[in-house]
Amino acid sequence: MSSKSPRDPLLSQIDQSKLPVHIAIIMDGNGRWAKKRHFGRIRGHREGVQAIRNVIKLCVKLAIPYLTLFAFSSENWNRPSEEVNALWNLLSEFLKKEMALLKKNHIRLNAIGRLQHIPDHAKQKIDWAMKETCSHTGLFFTLALNYGARDEIVDAVNQLLQISGSQPISVTEKMIRDHLYTRNMPDPDLLIRTSGEKRLSNFLLWQLSYSELVFTETLWPDFKDTDLAHAIIEYQKRHRRYGRV
Ligand code: IPE
Ligand code: IPE
Ligand code: MG
User: Fold this and answer.
1) Positive or negative torsion for Cα 223, 224, 228, 233
2) What is the span of the domain harbouring residue 205?
3) What is the mean pLDDT of each run of 10 residues along the chain (245 residues)?
4) What is the pTM of this model?
5) Which of 59, 113, 169, 200 is least surrounded by Cβ atoms within 10 Å, i.e. has the fewest?
6) In a domain, 14, yes or no
7) Residue 4 lies in a domain
């Protein structure tokens, strides 16, 4: 680690030879963060966006190849429309504002989910940001937007049925994997969920089969690079057995 920041003692506990290749995060707790401070929920989401920058920067510093963030679930449409609209506006703002950070660090933006159903302004920004960064070979940064793991599996099965036409087919694990939204990514090694909730909430159900799960009480807007470092250190203590002894 070349930098001399005061946090280096923590970073020096990270074993560079055992870094996760893919980190996925369920960013949860924006509403509770705001409630604790007597703010509206939208203020919590705004603060939550700031936390994303810290995480990206540490992933870049550690040369983590893949980072995937759950930003809007297929079930989040059930929130008040004012909150839903604010979330999409924040996404558009984030992409516009952080393009310089993405470019400076050669980050490639990717998005997974039923993107055809998200508001036009957000869809346009995502398409723009993906195009602007498509040649970058640094961190592969994926936002899960209008994402639901059950939708993803349904979409994969329907694609396979379409390909097969009237021919009966026998589906293999590889065929399903190759038709998921994540077909060009390895499965996450480490999943982090903030805010003390211990559930997957329809996130990457297929891909998380053998991931290490780390749950933290920290509310997402309070999540710092040090929290990510702690999660990585915890991950490195785990023994991944994959059914073996
Ligand atoms: C996570 O924070 C952000 C999204 C789901 C978009 P929440 O808004 O779920 O925050 P809590 O769970 O209500 O505290
Ligand atoms: C999961 O969080 C979705 C995102 C983080 C985008 P939720 O807050 O929506 O999940 P539940 O409702 O508590 O399961
Ligand atoms: Mg929540």
Assistant:
1) negative
2) 20-127+139-237
3) 63 97 99 98 98 97 98 98 98 98 98 98 98 98 99 98 91 97 98 98 98 98 98 98 96
4) 0.96
5) 169
6) no
7) no
